[in-house]
Design goal:
By secondary structure, the protein is an alpha+beta fold. The protein contains three helices and five strands.
Amino acid sequence: MVTSKEEVAKFLKYAKSLIAYERVIFAKRSINLQDIVDIGLTTEGSRQELLSLTVEEYSKGPEPDRDFPGDIWVFGKEILGHEVYIKMKIDRQDGMEELTCISFHIAKHKLNYPFKENK
């Protein structure tokens, strides 16, 4: 499936609105927690990094979540000298939507950025 820049921009705009309304949750996975510390970020710093994501940092998605309803979006971001793998989805909790950041850790493999110049 080919995703357009416009679709990615629409997802980011909505995701950032959820973050602005404090409707974001970071999955409490050990790799996420340890890497956030290793990179030198706080939870608030990680939240700010999500708010600054761009279409050029898009890697892939939306793809169906294999474990739960919804679609997964993957981005990558250079943060303090590390390529960081960011996997997110929009979930519904108690009748309200929220952004779930499933992964936020140092990338294990080089990511592909289809909209980035000089890939």
